[in-house]
């Protein structure tokens, strides 16, 4: 058994006043154990390693783990461990990560109780992507601020998709859970607008995707909430939370059909193989830009947050109206890149989606702009 002592190993600061995150790694393959143990410890997650099912289940009967990683390359044995784990009161709600081969029946593994998958051979990059996402799920399960069940329709914009329909399932002042028919890119920015029952005013805000499961449920942490929307949310939350004499506040019963379902049940196939999913329609970036309207006189200093060969999203507190012809200027060490486009969508207070106007000169300029985004990504990586 290996126990990760975070403080002595120097993996981040550890506050004794905050419960440490814990994990159980059930695997006999030395190389995979080494990679996963290091990644878990780097993420400030204490790890206990067990090389056989009997010892692992014995430990799981007497100790709670936030996450359990199970080697399922021997499919029957791995699925048996997961099934028995799910029946244990101490760990029935633990986040379960299955280690599988590319030939494994992924849907079957997920249906048997795994929350998401990591494919063998385990690389540090692949493990870090998936386990970092799992840590986000665990911390959401421990949140003090209650999420209040709702059933509200919303419009959702994210890279590659505008005005997608979604249904809010839970809501707090710091984040929300929703269901969408659209698959959102991992860790992308999203822009939402919706109206709550007690208010005629629209709530508009931006957030970051923290997790997404195989059923279409998505968890979003708020990034930017304008004051008007913040007041609406605060007032609404106050009306639906019952103060408790001690301990965290409780939530007034509301009763949508799926309130009792565990909204952060897992990442499914989305985050499980993030490192293998590079074919998204747009590349995330953070490029400083000057955007000019049709008169071309006053530059609007903005940020390009994603880009493709067909368009980009520009973050700016003062987006241009839909249909406006704009010129985007990005200054690089090699010179100035200018691209023309048309505003296809706008989110007041946040930004606008722009479709590039491609011509004989515009094509090479767009290629240069994408090259700038790729270069920036490589520098950050």
Walk me through this protein's architecture:
There is one protein chain. This protein has 381 residues and is of the alpha+beta class. The protein folds into three domains: 6-141, 3-Layer(aba) Sandwich (Rossmann fold); 148-275, Thrombin, subunit H, CATH 2.40.10; 283-380, Beta Barrel (Thrombin, subunit H), CATH 2.40.10. The chain has eight helices and 19 strands. It has helices at 6-9, 30-42, 53-62, 75-86, 106-111, 124-141, 227-240, 362-380, and strands at residues 21-26, 45-50, 67-71, 95-100, 116-119, 148-158, 161-171, 175-180, 189-195, 202-212, 217-224, 241-242, 250-251, 283-292, 300-307, 311-315, 325-332, 335-347, 351-356. It has a six-stranded antiparallel β-barrel. A six-stranded antiparallel β-barrel has the order 14-15-16-19-18-17. Strands 2-1-3-4-5 form a five-stranded parallel beta sheet, with helices on both faces. Helix 2 crosses helix 6. The protein is globular, with a radius of gyration of 23 Å. The protein starts with 5 loop residues before the first helix and ends with a helix.
